[in-house]
Description:
262 residues; mainly alpha; two-stranded parallel sheet; two-stranded antiparallel sheet; 9 helices
Amino acid sequence: MLDFIHWNASPEIFSLGPLTVRWYGLFFASTFFLGYLIMKKIFDREHVPIETLDQLSIYMLVGVVLGARLGHVLFYQPDYYINHPLEVLQIWKGGLASHGAALGILVSLYLFSKKSGQSYMWILDRIVIVVAIGGALVRMGNLMNSEIVGSVTNVPWAFVFEKEIHYLGDAPRHPAQLYESLSYMVLFVILIWMYFKKNMGETPGLIFGVFLIGLFSARFVIEFFKAVQVDFEQTMILDMGQILSIPFILFGVYLLLRKRKV
C-alpha cells in the first residue's frame, strides 16, 4: 500500500481569548508586506516618490479584497448570495476568487493611474511582480486550510486531507494548492529576472503579458487536477476557473504579439 502524505495541519497558529490568528490571514497579510518592500525597491530604482507607493498600496488592498469577494459571489455562488445577501460582507467565512481579485486589481489600478497621472501599463508591468508572489503565498494559506483540494489520485506525493475526511473521504488527492503555489513562485522569479536583470520594464506591456500568460496558463492546466468547487461545474467540460482564465491568456498573447510588431 502506498504511503501517502497525511495532511493534518491546523489552520490556526494560536489563540488569545477571542482573538485567533490563522495561517491564511498571515499569508494574506504577508503578500502586502512583501509586496510593499518589492515595490519600494522598484520605486527607488526609478526615482518615484514613496508617497505614490503609499497611495498605490491602498488602491491595491481595496481592489484585491473587493474584487476577490465579488468574484466568488458572482462567478461561483450567485444563487446562494441572492438568498443570503448579508453574507456577502462576511469575508471571514471564506470565499475569495482569484479571477475576481485580478479584475479588482485592474479596475483599482486604472483608477489610481487616472488620479496619479502615472501610466496604466507602467503600473501593471511592475505590480504583477508582487501579485505573482502574493498568489503563491495565498495558495499556501489554502493548503493550511485544507481547501481548494485536488482530485483523487494515487501519485506518491498525494495528500490525504485528514481534517476534511468527513467531507472529502479518505481518498488521497492531488495537492493542487502546492501545484499553484510553486507555479506562481517560478513565475515570480521569471518576472524579477525580466525587470531587474534584463530591464524589460522599459517595454510597456511585456512583463504584464508574460504574467497573464504564465499565471493563467498554469491555473488553466492545474484546474484539471482539482476537485470541482461548486456543484454546477460537475457537468462542465471546462470548469469556471478555466473559462475565466482564457480571456486573460488571450490578452497576454495579444500584448506580446503587439510588442513584436513594434
